Task: inverse folding
């Protein structure tokens, strides 16, 4: 099962590349790297949450974070959502130690946070000379509902503590009349993240 549809990934890339193409983003990041000033960078990272972004109906944006070329945290949008500092270990493992053109490739991972499963895409900032990385963090449960539409199968989505997150109307109506098929979707580190019952 795909965690995020191709269309959902395109929205993530569009948001990430569009944000870092803004002159105020580049200027704010350069001020942060040169002088440690972060107010302007925090304002730019807050903007999509305040003023919206293209594709908002296709993903649930949780957090935007910026890292230096060595993957050390620089800034994140101010919000009530608190995430552990630094990249998730599975994402860090993919991104760390890369060299040459590999450093210019985006990497992504489904990972488990204290607030539940999250999906991150790490995008290089700066074109051919990466001056840092932008992490776009989304709640993948929003996109997993598309699995029911793609497979044309009634579906119920659970987190691993047993809490039900979503259920298609057909799944609610079909109880006792159909054979249930269960799929456990693992995070990048192999730990179970979601249980999908079709």
Result:
């Amino acid at each position: 099962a795909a965690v995020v549809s191709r269309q959902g990934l395109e929205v993530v890339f569009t948001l990430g590349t569009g944000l870092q193409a803004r002159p105020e983003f580049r200027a704010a990041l350069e001020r942060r790297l040169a002088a440690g000033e972060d107010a302007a960078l925090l304002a730019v990272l807050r903007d999509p949450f305040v003023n919206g972004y293209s594709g908002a109906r296709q993903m649930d944006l949780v957090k935007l974070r910026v890292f230096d070329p060595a993957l050390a945290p620089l800034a994140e949008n101010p919000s009530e959502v608190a995430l552990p500092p630094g990249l998730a270990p599975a994402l860090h493992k993919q991104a760390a130690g890369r060299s040459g053109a590999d450093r210019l490739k985006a990497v992504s991972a489904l990972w488990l946070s204290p607030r539940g499963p999250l999906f991150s895409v790490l995008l290089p900032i700066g074109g051919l000379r990466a001056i840092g990385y932008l992490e776009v963090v989304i709640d993948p449960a929003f996109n997993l509902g598309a699995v029911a539409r793609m497979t044309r199968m009634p579906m119920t989505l659970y987190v691993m503590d047993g809490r039900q997150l979503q259920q298609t109307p057909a799944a609610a109506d079909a109880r006792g009349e159909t054979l249930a098929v269960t799929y456990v979707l693992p995070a990048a580190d192999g730990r179970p993240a979601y249980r999908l019952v079709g």
Observations:
- The chain has a mean pLDDT of 86.
- Residues 31 and 37 are 6 Å apart (CA to CA).
- The helical segments are 6-21, 23-35, 39-51, 89-95, 141-144, 146-151, 169-173.
